[in-house]
Structures are given as C-alpha cells and as structure tokens.
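dude i think i finally got it to work??
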Amino acid sequence: MAEPVGRFAVGDRVRVRLFDPEGHTRAPRYVRGHVGEVVGQRGVHPLPDAVVAGEDPEPTAVRAVRFDAAALWGSGEHSVTVDLWEDYLEPAGPGREGPRSTDLRDDDRELDG
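look at this
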C-alpha cells in the first residue's frame, strides 16, 4: 500500500510541536517537544482539533511515531509509538532529544485556534 502524500516518510526524525491549546488536541502532552522516528503511516484523516471546533478541514497524513521511553520519562528501555497528525510535527535536526523551550511561537500552523 502506498503511503499518503505528506511531509514525512518512514525513517524521518520528527519533533512534536510544543504547544498548549485551550481546546481539544490528539497530541499527548508527554510527547510534545520530543523527537521521534516515523515508523508507519495511518492514512489521511481530518485533524480532530479542527473538527471539534466546527471546521471542515482537509484530511492530512497521520504518522506512527516511535519515541524512546527514556527520552520521554527519564528511564525505560522500551519504546512508545503514538499516531500523530502531520500538523503536530516538524522536521528534527540532529542533536538534543528533549523539548526545546523555544518551540512556543506564533506561526501559521498554530493549533490552538
């Protein structure tokens, strides 16, 4: 099965945007700001954040992203995989795996509507 069109492919390193919306989001707080690896695709679906706000968004790619437990919680030798809409993701460069304090910013992809 072909991957849906999107910005990220299996094997890409991505960072979950660090944001704190007032309303609904499907991006768990414990992965926001952290770096993971895209390990699969989950189709294309409307962004739930926009749907519950009464919008009719275009479907976007959903990716399975794997995180090392130790990077999320400070310990653990297992991994955690979370399905995330590409709207929540940005490319991750080499370097630190934890959250960046500079990720809070206003841009055209702000999800807190």
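Strands lie at 13-16, 35-45, 60-68, 79-85, 89-91.
im so relieved honestly
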